[in-house]
Amino acid sequence: MVVVVVVASLALFALLAFGPFSIFYSNPLVTCRQAEQVPQLHFLASRRHRFPATKKGEESCLGDRPLEKDSNAITRGGNYFQSMSMASSSFSGSGNALMWFRKGLRIHDNPALECASRGVTGGGFLYPVFVIDPHYMEPDPRASSPGSSRAGLNRIRFLLESLKDLDLSLRKLGSRLLVMKGEPGEVLINCLKQWKVEKLCFEYDTDPYYQQLDMRVKDYASAARIEVFSPVSHTLFNPADIIQKNGGRPPVSYQSFLKLAGEPSWASSPLMTIFPSLPSVGDVGSSQIVEVPTLEELGYVDIEMELPPFRGGESEGLKRLREAISNEKWVATFEKPKGDPSAFLRPATTTLSPYLKFGCVSSRYFYQCIQDVYTRNKKHTSPPVSLLGQLLWRDFFYTVAFGTPNFDQMRGNKICKQIPWNDNDELLTAWREAKTGYPWIDAIMTQLHKWGWMHHLARHCVACFLTRGDLFVHWEKGRDVFERLLIDSDWAINSGNWMWLSCSSFFYQYNRIYSPISFGKKYDPNGNYIRHFLPILKDMPKEYIYEPWTAPLSVQTKAKCIIGKDYPKPMVSHDSASKDCKQKLAAAYELNKKLNGVVSEEDLKVLQRKLDATCDSVLNPVHSHSSSGAKRQRRS
């Protein structure tokens, strides 16, 4: 009897780095269909050892060579496959198989699921299992002080909804989702042992957490002579291929990435695999199987509040994709800089980022849908500002992160400027808790808490304010807050954007900052966005909504919002704080240039002391004005 076990593991949101990792850990790829057509191509889990092939007289294609040093890629169209090594036997349904889901919570364009299901013959079984990792569960909202990489309420809600949707889809195909709890490596290895698995299938992941976890599982699979199939399907390209083309170095500019990437070889291949049915679920033995849990069962308190407008799952994701693509004029003319960050009722984006993060929607299928629109609309925007360009930005950050040790931190990160950021938790807490005294900033942070999502330009504003714009707080701390609160938090994209917006890497024009006053007013002069997310200011006249501290006391009284009592005073003067931030960055840039980027902690401490003696605007608030009013801050 052939048994295929599908295990989905929530080694959830793996957002912490575990040090340097080999850029050539990923290796040969091949399509599922070609694995059928070319039976000699076969994958065997072996990094260092030679194993007897399944056919008498045959041996491993790679023999004793370590995989990390073999970077030749087989790219023959269609669905790409990541593997440990290859041996010359066919992928036949000759034994039990296990498929391990991590992010790709979907049925469509899921090459690992396709190959696993094709491996089932003779009435075999398919066991879809999802492992909930307690390491990334943190129900206590106070635990993120000042920041935590563990998942907050909104992301867990989205995940559970996605799992329920996946379970429903599997049931329609004659299967169902089995949920397990525990440390993913232990659970997975126990399943491999208990179910006598001979084939292991899972989607390849470049995040450091998964790299570590995968190494452990693959080492066990190697010792147990278990074949490993690991397709690259979460991204448009295999990051290792891009890095190999660039001489072993990740491209650090978007344009260089585009030149290296070209067009995906699967671009014209059909990706929407049709499953008439899936093998049924068999006996799970002594395994502890549960249904998809509720938030309460995981320890989360589902507070009665405004629900985020994102329901998790493949069904909802594909529905949103169809709606977005149906407006061909909007798709063809999309320009990222022209989006409206204050549009919350009908956001000026596809709002697909949470679905791409969890793999509810295939980025490759999304790519094909956009290209189809471009084919019918010859006049369309181009990267980097186009809709297609946004998908390519995603792959760019994945590629740079994959090839850059310590990508998620400043120290030891070769592409990151060394800057003496301050560690003022008082500033960080006020920013995180939406108590900066700047309504535009506080409204955005409130939306983050309530929805777990905000427009990309809104993210730019609050990230700039925390770092190089006003507070000069370390970008890593802001990144940690986003990691916990965002539904679409993604290790590579989140860290990459925080480096970008803090002018630590990629972007270096630190004199260009987002004003916490005038930027929002440009899009929403009446302040409707602020009134919605900060109802305490809903009756403030529009001429004061962005600067309520300038309102006469009589106006504040009439609006039922006294600044300093009902709503906080500005924590800093934007004019003086932004000036000081520019001076600090100029000094830090000069130090990095002088020392050729090799800046020690002591060097930063010396510079910090020097800057502290000359820049003192932090925590010097703008005072609330009397009834006579006062001069407003200059717009930046």
From TrEMBL:
The record marks W421, W475, W498 as: Electron transfer via tryptophanyl radical. One of its GO terms (cellular component) is nucleus. Its EC number is 4.1.99.13. Coiled coil: none annotated. Residues 95-236 form the Photolyase/cryptochrome alpha/beta domain. Keywords: FAD, Flavoprotein, Nucleotide-binding. InterPro entries: Crypto/Photolyase_FAD-like_sf (IPR036134), Crypto/Photolyase_N_sf (IPR036155), Cryptochr/Photolyase_FAD-bd (IPR005101), Cryptochrome/DNA_photolyase_1 (IPR002081), DNA_photolyase_N (IPR006050), Rossmann-like_a/b/a_fold (IPR014729). FAD binds at residues 349-353, 390-397, 488-490. One of its GO terms (biological process) is nucleobase-containing compound metabolic process. It comes from the Eukaryota. PROSITE patterns: PHR_CRY_ALPHA_BETA (PS51645). Transmembrane segments: none annotated. Belongs to the DNA photolyase class-1 family. This is (6-4)DNA photolyase. It comes from Linum tenue. The lineage of its organism: Eukaryota, Viridiplantae, Streptophyta, Embryophyta, Tracheophyta.
